[in-house]
Design brief:
The protein is mainly α. Helices cover about 65% and strands about 5% of the residues.
Length: about 290
């Protein structure tokens, strides 16, 4: 676990993750149990006198989907909670983004749950051939629900573990290698800020995190000011004065940022810092952005 938790946003994000995980698991149980228990009973037991391959196949298919849903949701939501609990050294900005994502996921979860549960309940508990015919549609709805449920924790895990800090420039710098790195700077953001303050230099967070893609005004800074902070932190890390397991990764990320800021200073290019959670990018993003990370 990181050495310095980000308060109070970290506590709020952890609480929101636990609530989201609990509601997701509860929704999965409501959605899956009728398929696990009800579908085989209705399709197989109640029709045992005129048992058909179709009924057996549909009942088995529904039950298996329900079991997969429960297993996957329980495993992945637990992994998400552990990921948030374990990496508590991120800055407040990171946890604010996590909470915003969780709110969106919860809203979609409620819509999916209401639609899926209604269809499943009518198919399993209804009377007549029409209700039996809806079993397949209920199973398909369950499959879509599984995909959505799996995408949620995978997205949360990815955001928590792959957040990275990258320099953002008002003009192209060229010949820099920072865009796919910076994970350690994000992971230890709180501790790095505390170290910077103890050294009497500006914290890294003071150079970010406004993002024009979120309709925020980017505040540009002189590279020389950023270099003072990065070089001071790099010196401390290289001396081993901060007892972190991944000191080599932190030093490597700081060196990349220092190189980029040095080139920017030579070209009179201003910079800011971005906290990104996306692993990839596209040309459309950079057409919409004011600046560049390259």
């Amino acid at each position: 676990m990181a050495s310095a938790p980000a308060q109070p946003e970290y506590d709020l994000a952890l609480r929101a993750t636990i609530i989201w995980a609990g509601l997701s698991a509860f929704a999965a149980m409501l959605f899956a149990l009728p398929l696990i228990l009800g579908a085989p009973y209705v399709l197989i037991v109640e029709h045992r006198d005129a048992l058909s391959f179709r009924n057996v196949a549909l009942g088995t298919f529904a039950a298996v989907l329900g079991l997969i849903l429960l297993y996957m949701v329980f495993c992945n939501t637990a992994e998400s909670v552990v990921a948030v609990w374990r990496w508590d050294g991120y800055l407040d900005r990171h946890w604010q983004i996590i909470r915003r994502t969780l709110r969106t996921h919860l809203g979609i979860l409620l819509v999916f749950s209401a639609a899926g549960l209604s269809l499943t309940a009518f198919a399993v508990l209804g009377d007549g051939q029409q209700a039996n015919g809806l079993i397949l549609f209920a199973a398909l709805a369950d499959a879509l629900f599984i995909l959505f449920q799996l995408s949620q924790p995978c997205g949360i895990n990815y955001m928590v573990q792959h957040a990275h800090v990258v320099p953002y420039f008002d003009k192209k710098v060229g010949e820099i290698d920072t865009f796919c790195h910076g994970q350690s700077l994000a992971r230890h953001g709180t501790a790095l800020d505390e170290a910077a303050r103890s050294l009497g230099v500006t914290p890294l967070s003071a150079f970010g995190w406004n993002d024009d893609m979120d309709h925020e005004k980017v505040e540009w800074h002189e590279p020389s000011e950023g270099l003072k902070t990065v070089n001071a932190l790099l010196l401390v890390v290289q001396r081993g004065e901060l007892a972190w397991v991944d000191q080599e990764a932190i030093a490597a990320d700081l060196k990349r940022v220092a190189h980029a800021l040095t080139r920017a200073e030579e070209r009179a290019i201003q910079f800011s810092l971005l906290l990104r959670h996306e692993g990839g990018t596209s040309g459309l993003e950079w057409e919409a952005r004011q600046g560049t990370c390259f």
